[in-house]
């Protein structure tokens, strides 16, 4: 089922000279083609979020500029009962010293991003996103809540021809978001926590990276669902990318399947069902019209964050777990999804 949405195949500016949304930018693409030439202050939000899943751990790095502050973080989760979980976050008033480029940070032809001191102390965080010939290099340093030094060094590969999903979501001429989601990218690296060294990747061990690149001008409050997963299933390399609620009524969705590096764009809104009272109960995600997505997501952990800091209030429940069910690509190929590791989240944001 081909999407009704307009496919963009040439580079385009996100904004007109006055800072409003460029009508020619509305659509989706199989690789990042938008230049986010944003103007204005207060409603502009920029971020790079990388999440790397291994068979035993998950590592997520965030660099964000929300105009009146920047929030940069390192998150680590060890799966299983009693597994470690911690987050090191640094708030930078007015976003001083944090600059995110108009295109995907660390990609060929774009800018590298480096935030925080080289030897962070006192709650500060160092994050680096750099272009290398073999891919994107992710590095991070911080002190854990137990004051152990943490160092992460991860290389995310760029397989030739691997497609991603980039979409412009238009609420209005003045409020819009450009998102570029990259799934099922092979990764390898290490994380040192104190004297303990974790190594992953370097072979077919099930280490995958996902990128959420965002640039836009947002309303004051918004709710969303986001789900993603990567891995091998039914003899294929599969990346799942799903969104919900925040795109409703805009004519755009951020829904797609990446199978062996080829993108299937899904233009319909998906049906999400989950229990707000029991977030670790199974979720379902389905494509009601096309039937291209019929999945059950079973969480094993909820990363819950509820904050109210005046200008920013956030309620995030990001559940990590496994997807099972089936998907169908544009060419009609049905793929059985079995224990695909990823996440699904329920977020309410005031910012």
TrEMBL record:
It holds the Pfam family DUF2804. This is DUF2804 domain-containing protein. InterPro entries: DUF2804. It comes from the Bacteria. The lineage of its organism: Bacteria, Bacillati, Actinomycetota, Actinomycetes, Kitasatosporales.
């Amino acid at each position: 089922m081909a999407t009704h949405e307009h496919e963009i195949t040439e580079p385009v500016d996100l904004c007109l000279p006055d800072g409003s949304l460029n009508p020619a930018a509305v659509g989706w693409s199989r690789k990042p083609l938008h230049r986010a030439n944003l103007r204005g202050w207060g409603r502009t939000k920029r971020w790079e979020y990388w999440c790397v899943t291994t068979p035993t751990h998950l590592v997520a790095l965030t660099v964000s500029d929300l105009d009146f502050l920047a929030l940069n973080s390192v998150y680590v989760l060890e799966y299983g009962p009693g597994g470690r979980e911690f987050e090191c976050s640094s708030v930078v008033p007015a976003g001083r010293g944090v600059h995110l480029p108009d295109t995907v940070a660390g990609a060929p032809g774009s800018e590298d991003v480096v935030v925080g001191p080289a030897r962070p102390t006192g709650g500060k965080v160092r994050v680096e996103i750099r272009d290398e010939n073999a891919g994107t290099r992710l590095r991070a340093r911080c002190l854990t809540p137990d004051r152990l030094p943490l160092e992460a060094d991860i290389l995310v590969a760029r397989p030739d021809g691997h497609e991603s999903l980039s979409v412009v979501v238009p609420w209005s001429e003045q409020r819009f978001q450009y998102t570029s989601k990259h799934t099922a990218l092979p990764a390898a690296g290490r994380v040192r926590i104190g004297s303990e060294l974790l190594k992953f990747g370097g072979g077919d061990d099930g280490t995958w990276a996902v990128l959420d690149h965002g640039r836009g001008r947002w309303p004051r409050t918004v709710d969303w669902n986001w789900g993603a997963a990567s891995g091998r299933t039914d003899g294929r390399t599969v990346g799942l990318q799903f969104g919900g609620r925040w795109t409703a009524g805009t004519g755009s969705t951020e829904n797609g399947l990446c199978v062996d590096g080829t993108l299937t764009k899904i233009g319909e809104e998906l049906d999400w069902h989950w229990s707000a009272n029991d977030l670790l109960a199974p979720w379902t995600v389905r494509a009601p019209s096309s039937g291209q997505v019929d999945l059950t997501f079973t969480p094993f952990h909820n990363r819950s964050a509820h904050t109210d800091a005046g200008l920013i209030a956030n309620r995030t429940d990001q559940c990590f777990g496994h997807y099972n069910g089936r998907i169908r690509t544009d060419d009609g190929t049905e793929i059985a999804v079995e224990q695909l590791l990823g996440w699904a989240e329920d977020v309410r944001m005031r910012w």
